[in-house]
Amino acid sequence: MRSIEVEGKNTKEAIHTALEKLGVTRDKVQVKVLSEGHHGLFGMSGLKLAKVKVTLKEDTHHQHHK
Predict the structure, then answer these.
(1) Closest by CA position to 54, among listed 24, 10, 63, 36
(2) Is 63 within the bounds of a domain?
(3) Neighbour count for residue 16 (Cβ, 10 Å)
(4) How many CA atoms does the CB half-sphere of 35 hold within 13 Å?
(5) Is residue 22 within 8 Å of residue 54, measured between CB atoms?
(6) Would residue 25 count as lying in a domain?
(7) Is residue 31 domain-resident?
(8) pTM, whole model, 2 decimals?
(9) Distance from C-alpha of 22 to C-alpha of 48, rounded to nearest angstrom
(10) Strands 50-56 and 3-8
């Protein structure tokens, strides 16, 4: 399965970016949050980006129909 790791200001932004890069919708992937984003003291320094790993689910197009 193909997967990518993406960073963003928050998990929502990181997931959105990953979906755009993969060219798929949310229901086609599994998401694992690797780290939550957060701001430093009073939002000044110490900004830490959120990081997610997005993995494509198994392709159902290759399964045989009964």
Answers:
(1) 24
(2) no
(3) 15
(4) 13
(5) yes
(6) yes
(7) yes
(8) 0.77
(9) 24
(10) antiparallel
Residue span of the structural domain in which 45 resides = 3-56
Residue type, 48: K
14: helix, coil or strand? helix
Instruction: For residue 52, give both structure tokens.
Output: 């997610």
Taking a C-beta distance cutoff of 8 angstroms, is the pair 6, 21 a contact? yes
Chain segment 22-57, per-residue pLDDT in tens: 999 999 999 999 999 887 666 566 678 999 999 999
Give the pLDDT mean for 3-32. Answer: 96
One-letter identity of residue 11 = T
pLDDT at 65: 46
Domain count, the chain: 1
